[in-house]
Structures are given as C-alpha cells and as structure tokens.
Amino acid sequence: xxRDLGARAISRxxxxxxxxxLFGAQTSHxxxxxxxxxxxxxxxxYNFGKFVTWxxxxxxxxxxxxxxxxxxxxxxxxxxxxxxxxxxxxxxxTAKKISSLQESDHCRIVFISSSEQARLKAILAAAxxxxxxxxxxxxHFADKGGMIEFVPQENRIRFEVNLPATEEAxxxxxxxxxxxxxxxxxxxxx
Amino acid sequence: MTKTNHPFSFPAKLILISxxxxxxxxxxxxxxxxxxHAQVLEANGGADNPLSQMSLEQLGxxxxxxxxxxxxxxxxxxxxxxxxxQEDIERSGATNxxxxxxxxxxxxxxxxxxxxWSIGIRxxxxxxxxxxxxxxxxxxxxxxxxxxTYWEVQDTLLDDIDRIEVIRGPGATIWxxxxxxxxxNIITKKAKDTHGTLASAGxxxxxxxxxxxxxxxxxxKNLDYRVYGKGFNRSPEHHTDDQNYDNWRGGQAGFRLDWAxxxxxxxTVQGDIYDQADGESVQAxxxxxxxxxxxxxxxxxxxxxxxxxxxxxxxxxxxxxxxAYYDRANRREPNLGxxxxxxxxxxxxxxxxxxxEISWGLGTRFTPATNIEVVSGLTFQPDKRSDQLFTAFxxxxxxxxxxRLSLSVGSKLLRTNFSPVQxxxxxxxLWTPTGKQTLWAAFTHAVRTPADVERDFFLSGxxxxxxxxxxxxxRFNANRNFRSEQMNGYELGYRRLITKTLYVDLSxxxxxxxxxxxxxxxxxxxxxxxPPPTHILLPAEFGNGLLGTTKGVEIxxxxxxxxxxxxxxxxxxxxxxIERSRNSLDIGTAxxxxxxxxxxxxxxxxxxxxxKKFTLDLAYRYIxxxxxxxxxxxxxxxxxxxxRFNEHLRLSLVGDNLLQPYHAEDGGDPGPLVLIKRSxxxxxxxxN
Lengths: 190, 688
Hints:
The structure holds two protein chains of two kinds.
Chain A: H1 2-24, H2 37-51, E1 52-54, E2 64-70, H3 77-83, E3 87-88, E4 91-98, E5 107-112, H4 120-130, E6 133-136, E7 148-153, E8 156-162, H5 163-168, E9 171-173, H6 175-180, E10 183-185
Parallel strand pairs in A: 2-4, 2-5, 5-6, 6-7, 8-10
Antiparallel strand pairs in A: 1-9, 3-4, 7-8
Helix pairs in contact in A: 2-3
Chain B: H1 10-43, H2 50-53, H3 56-59, H4 72-75, E1 80-85, H5 86-92, H6 97-101, E2 107-113, E3 116-121, E4 132-136, E5 139-140, E6 161-168, E7 182-188, E8 196-204, E9 207-218, E10 223-234, E11 238-239, E12 248-260, E13 265-285, E14 292-315, E15 318-333, E16 336-353, E17 356-373, E18 378-380, E19 384-401, E20 405-416, E21 419-434, E22 437-448, H7 452-455, E23 457-465, E24 471-477, E25 485-499, E26 502-521, E27 526-528, E28 535-562, E29 565-580, H8 590-594, E30 600-609, E31 614-623, E32 634-644, E33 649-656, E34 662-664, E35 674-677, E36 679-687
Parallel strand pairs in B: 4-7, 24-28
Antiparallel strand pairs in B: 1-6, 2-3, 4-5, 6-7, 8-9, 8-36, 9-10, 10-12, 11-35, 12-13, 13-14, 14-15, 15-16, 16-17, 17-19, 18-23, 19-20, 20-21, 21-22, 22-25, 23-24, 25-26, 26-28, 27-28, 28-29, 29-30, 30-31, 31-32, 32-33, 33-36, 34-35
C-alpha cells in the first residue's frame, strides 16, 4: 500500500509537471499560431479601404482615413495596432470609436457591432445617406441592406457583399474585392 | 507497523522531491517570462503587422480561434445548452459519440463494457437512456421498443460531425417526444464543408483497428455531396473472470447530397447503412431447463436510414421545413430479436409578427415492428405491432423589451396509439441585462410515453426450485394500463462573459416526477400451467408506482488565458430522491435508481497549441460513486497529442483512462463488473 501511494503520487506529479512544462514551451509563439477573429476582421477593415472608391461629396472632407466602430467595441487595442502607421491614398488611417450615427459623417468605414442589432434599420438608412461603407458580423446583415458582412466559414472569416447597397451610397467596389467575396448580392445569378 | 518495500529509499526520495520542486519553479519562471513576452508581441501591431500586409484572399484563408465559446445560439437560448464542437471532438480523442458526450456538464456517461454505455441527463442514467431524446440531423434515433437509445448503433464519421448540442432539461418545445430530461442533437456538416478526400486509420490496444474514408465534392455552384465508409474492431475490456465476451466490430457507410436550388430553397438527402457484431452477455430465462443461464455471444445489429429535407427561406425570418425519413433497425440478440421500421414526416414553420417569433409544426411517425422470441422468458404479445405517434407544437417567442427581455410560451401536443392526447406546456424567460450576461428561467411540463417494453413485454426471472418439485419464477407481465411518466421541471440559469476570454455558464434545476416506472408485485405466487411445464409463478408488472424529485446545479467555466491555451471545466451536482407512491406495489427499486447516477461529476480540460504543428490536450475527470451499481468513485485522465506534419497529414496519439490500469464505471452486465482498461491508440489522417 505504501509503495503504491509513493509510485502513484509520483506519476500524478509527473502528469502535472508535463502540464506545466507545456506552459513553458511557448517561445516565439504568436507568429506561429492562429490569430483571433478580431485580428483578422481588423485586417480586413484596413484592407477594404484599398479596394473601395468614395465618389460622394464626403470623399475629401477629412484629413484622415477613419475606420469607426459603432457600438460595443469587440476590437479593443487590436484595430488600433492593425492600422497604426498605415496610409490609404495619402491619408493617415485612424481607428475611432463612435456611439451614434451622427458622429459617423467623416467615417469612411464603419463597423457595426452586434450590440446595435436592434437599431440596425435606422443605422443602415443613415449610413447610406452618409456614403460610408458599412461592415458588420451581425447575421444576415447583407440581406438586410448592410454592405459587407463577415461570415465565419469553418474557422475562417469570409465576407459577403450587397452590391446595390454600395451603389446607393455612392461607393464603387473594386472587382478584386468582389472576386474574393463568397456571395455578392445583386450580381446576376445571386 | 509493517515494513513495506519502497522502490525509492529515503535519501533517493529526498533528492527526487527536491529535483521536482526545482524543476517546477524553473518551469513556472520560464512560463511566466514567455507569457509576458507573448503579451508584448500581441500588443505590437501596426502596419508592419503581418496580417495588415495580407491580401483579401489570404485573409480569407487564415484559420482563427474564437475568443469565447458563447455563440449566438447558446447565448440567446433560455435553456441549459452546451455545444460540443468538431474541434472539441477531435481534440478529445473520442472514437464514438458516447465518449464525445463526456465533455458536456450534467450528462452522465458510464461505460458498461466495450460496446455499451449507461447514459443519462440529470439522473436516471441507464443502458436504455429512457428520458433523453437523441437526434441525428433531425432523425430521432430513439427506439419505441423500450423508449430509449441503443447507443452502439448511433454512429457516423466523427470528422463529419459539425457539433453536438446537449440540452439539459426538457427540450424547448419544438423538439420531439420524450425529451424529458434532455435532448442530444447531433448535427453533421453540410456537404459543401466536406469537399475533398479524407482518409484515416489507426489502432491501439483496445481500439484494435479502425479505418475511415470520405470523399466529397460538388459542381461548384449549388450541388454538393459526400460519401463515406468506416470500419472498426474493438477488443473486450477487462474481465476478472476472463469471460471476454464484449468484442465489438462493425462497419458503416453513408452519403449526403445538398442542393441549393435557388436562394430560397434547399434540399438535402442523406442516408447510412451499418452492420455490427456486438459481443454481449445476457441473462436468459426459460421455463424448461436450464431455467436460467447467461448467454455470451455476439448480437447482430444492422440497419439503415434515408432522410430527405426541404427548407424554404422566405426572408425576414420566415421559413418552412419539411422532412421525411425512413429508418430500419434489426437486432438479433442472444435472448431477443427485434425488427423495426420507422416512417416519419415532420413539418415546421417559423415567422415573425410584431415583436414575436412564432414557430409551429406537425409530425407523424409510424413504426411497425416484429419481435422474435428466442427464449421463453422474454416474449412480446402481440409479437407484431405498429406504433403511431402524432406530435404538434406551437411556440411564441415574444420580445417584451427588444434584445433585453423575451418570453417564450408554447406547448407540445403528443398522442400515440396507446396514450391519449397529452399537452407539454412550457414557459421560458430570458433576460439580457447587458451584452455580457444573460439570466433565464423556465418551467416545463413533460411526459414520457409508454414503450413496447411496458405494454407488451413479458419478462421472466428464475427464482429457484420451489415446493413440490416445481420451479419458481417471477414474471413481469405486460401492462396495457401503463401510463406516461410525468415531470414538472423548474430551471434557472445564468451566463456571463466575465472578460473577453473568461466565460461561465451556470444552470440549476428542480424536477418533480410522478408515475415513474416501477416494478410491482401484483399478487401472491400461484401454480401456472402455461407456458409448460407447470411451475409456480409470482406475478408482477411494470407499473407507475414511483415518484420523486431531482435537483442540482451545473457550472461550466471556460478560460483562454492566452490564445494558445484553452482551459475548460465543468462541475455537476445531482441530488435524487425517489420513493414509492402511496398504494404502490413496487418491490423496492428506488434506492437502485438513486444509486445509479453520480452525485458529483467534474471534468477539467486543458488544450495547448504548442506550435503550428503540435497540440496537446489533457483531461482530468472525476465521477463519484454509484452504490446502486457497486461502483466506487473514480478519477482518471485522458491525453491527446496531435502532430501535424504538413497541411495534408497529421498524427494523433491518444491515451485514455490513464491513471489506473482499469476501473469500473457501471454494472450493466450480468456477472462481475467489467473494468474499463487503460488504453492508447495512434491515428494517422490524410486530407486534401
């Protein structure tokens, strides 16, 4: 009995140690493992700016290229760090947090958080008038009139585009962007 | 004090302990340093951030880890739901569905032997899992033979499972009949998500050999398909009497076809066929010598199913679904034969009306079955019967305060060919005070309709030699008056996203049961001529003589301290109080029922993504004693080491039940307890 306890305790401890040693086995880890959803979505937002042309009067109004987040912010520091130091056209890219559509006049891109789901209709109507690219991960966002909807697909993030919505807001989306979208509403056959 | 032989002498032990302590401290120190380093790296970004440099196409190809496991569905459900994802299944090393179910809180999974389990949700665990509704892609896999699920034939390619939703408590109104204590909903991936070829094979000491093959494709637009085949051979578990009867082998094949005819209509056709040889040991009683014997032989189980579904999305939250399936199950066991066909059609519609989401549906099921008598101690009368079931449901989900407070009211309606119309009303309230927490409460009335086994079944047991040279038997006679079991369930739950990486789900319940299945003695022994030869009979029947309550709590926290380390746990507490009702003739089965479900269950899982190539998952689980099964409390551990060679090939090394050479989990077989062995297997998977 004593012997069993000794051996068993040792083996249990070894299991625990193995557990801990993996904790220590992380070295230059972040480069090798999977990024989070927020990081990929932030990278997308930054990228979209390069493939969209703003043709409305709002186009030249701001000194910076603003990517805004409306509602509960799921990005935190991630969006700021993704855009830091980047330029689109000749404008500095900045990330901003806004709490109402009124503040979105100078936003080129607005990401609508899922916390705003209830006010979606009003938000989309105002965004169309303002010539802002609306992006969200709210389910069926694109069907409801949103411009770009993030869709998870098997642990990857893809997106769908609502073409008529972008046209109504005076935005032109590059064909390169449309090619990568998993679904483009408003194109023939969709 | 006796001198025992220690393998480590005292000085050696001292050195060993100091070495271990030093290495622990060292590792903690390194680990701490690395976490700080990792956090610094994460905060750094900027346009130099590699992600920002990627093209849209590249971004769409990156695999992401989700920050929290509170998907939309779970968050807004006023019920105790737990979702086991495909990744959970893969990283748990489970080779079949019951083993994957261990990951969910509130569900008791006890392995009886190599091919049988005793499963229950919130109590009443048994081989038969009577009060739990199990569905695979909308097809009910419950058998009307004894109102339960034969887990050994519920199988599919585990890689094709998208998720398993485990709902503890009476299912939200829309689920089918007998969802009294819970619903297990197994959902497979859509055909468009399983393109390409997947081949895997492996073996170990108990999982002696298994192979899986799947191929999927599509026309690139709206038609996708997959076909699969699998085979396995599993050796017996540990028997102290060397009666190694539970060898298990089988094969299964199936297909799925998905057609998106237009943006509104979707069609799916899927089917499976299987054939298995399940080793079992059963008690067989006969009125002729040898009266009672244990038969060890392989049961032949085979069958198949085909299911078709049409979904039409009419936009704005309106949709309709029509589904029909046929299922055939053949069971040839050493003491019984059963051939069962099931025809089922269901219709469901959902639509929005000012602040309300209304769903309603109708379903009908027709089950003709034939029972084959193998031993005279186990007979059905009539031996051919057709069961009919009619269900309807209605549910209204009212948004009292948009996105904050919602009330669901509804009811199921159930009618079978041997029970009158029964209503199962349910009221649920969901309150979301902030975007990070929800509170829900529910009241449901549920019923478990009678099964063949209660109404048509004659089960005899041999007591021994009796006076006058006659043999003494007891027989449970069919009870045509067996009523449905009734249950009133009260539940309360709370979910909270404490930080972006820490989530906790709490559920509590109080269930009151009446008219529970009991084993009643209905009279004094008497001499009987039929079946011959003349013998003495103690008459009994299955009655509705028990009642009682169950109450408990389930806590399931989930924490991602870093994005390469995922910690999960769950603790379930269950208190069962079952007793005889007034005027009950039950022989005293209540303590056995109470003692067959564990009071405490705990599981702790740790998932490490060591690097892009290596993953390590460790699980520790504890189950408290089952006095009704003569099983002690046990704790054991499982580990899965994953090695990805390249994007096509990966290896898994799995070790199960590692902390002891063997342990008992449940006593469902006749004879001594079968002990579940420590096991390991390796699996190689190739995928393109």
